[in-house]
Amino acid sequence: MSAEKLERQTRSYLSDNVPQIQEHGGHFEIEDVDEATGEVTVAIGGACSGCGIAPMTMKAIKQRLAEELDEVSEVTVRRAGGPRAAVMPSKTDEMEDMDEYEDYSPPF
């Protein structure tokens, strides 16, 4: 499969299955795809940057994208940089390690 097709499938999956990102003022970017290994890197930003459930959203994307798309072997999800960078990176870093997020399964 070509990198372009893998990127399209990833973008389509996220748009269709994680609409909350865009509905709540966030965005996602497909930063990298490696068609040879099936590795995909996704960044989320905008309103997601300071959102309290962003770590759960990131965890769900990482797990479910690899489960749903056979061509994807590994997913890296991170916060977007640049002008769309996290507005509260220290808080969201702390949230990623909170026990409350360990077993949470978002409804998407």
UniProtKB/TrEMBL annotation:
A Pfam family reported for this protein in Swiss-Prot or TrEMBL: NifU
Name used for this protein in its record: NifU family protein
InterPro entries according to UniProt: FSCA_dom_sf, NIF_FeS_clus_asmbl_NifU_C
Domain NIF system FeS cluster assembly NifU C-terminal: 19-75
Membrane-spanning ranges: none
Organism: Halobellus rubicundus
Superkingdom, taxonomy of origin: Archaea
Polar residues bias: start-end ranges: 11-20
Biased composition (Basic and acidic residues): 1-10
Compositionally skewed regions (Acidic residues) per UniProt: 94-108
Region listing for Disordered, in residue ranges: 1-26, 79-108
